[in-house]
Amino acid sequence: MKVIDMRCRPAYLHDFFGANPGSPGYAAARWLNRRVGTRGSDEHFARSLTAEGFLAEVRDAGLSRAVVVGRHTPSQHLPNDFIHEIVHGHEELLGIAGIDPALQGVEGAIAEIDRAIDRLGLSGIDLEPGFGEPARHPDDPLYWPIYEHLAARGIPLFLMSGPTTPDPAFNDPGRLAKIARAFPTLRIVCYHGYWPNVDQLLGVAFRYENILAVPDMYLFLPGSAAFVQAANGFLGEQLLFGSSYPFRPIGQSIDDFLALGFKESVLDKLLCGNAARLFGLPT
């Protein structure tokens, strides 16, 4: 069984992920693990406080690929060069670059997209409108030149969503329709699946096949059963697996995913095939 984990980051990436034992970030990582259903030690992620430990976690879980996601927001910047440093030379790791045209300027953000893809060898672009200052919706005009550039280059877009958005009003999947309609070749990947607004996201994804969902750790929380039902039908090529490591164990997340009730006929696509197609990887 091949598995591509679409959201999998080492603890040493940032204090937010538990990089410093005894810190508030470390305590928050432990809390979040308990909150999303981790069984066993809520400090399991401590193994990935080193690069060697993170690779061991990925390999022991049997992942074909693990996707390490960058971020660029006013409150947290995970530099793209650091993402490159983590994934470079390791076939099992892929990196996603973070940008913010509000901070970098549109031209600066576009230049960083090209640098991240062409020079750093990263595989997609992460954008987090709801975490900006001010917060924005993804259909804000600021981002349209970014979408146009990504679509022209065939680079997938990864949007952060979900309940950690500082203002829940900016966790609105309905705002994706305008983007998906204007850029039908742009693959729009929704991290956290806009949980808890699951039905709304499914409604937009039903209409626009270029919208993909990675519910990751929220797939295992109440209100996400509709993702399973949809993936057994129309969403079978639009749902992708993610563990959210270090906030949830990789192996447990795979086991829990297999127990959710997905049809055997779609499991390979959900766990690997859809992600492989997104990144142009062999299956």
Automatic annotation (TrEMBL):
This is Amidohydrolase family protein. It comes from the Bacteria. InterPro entries: ACMSD (IPR032465), Amidohydro-rel (IPR006680). It holds the Pfam family Amidohydro_2. Residues 52-281 form the Amidohydrolase-related domain.
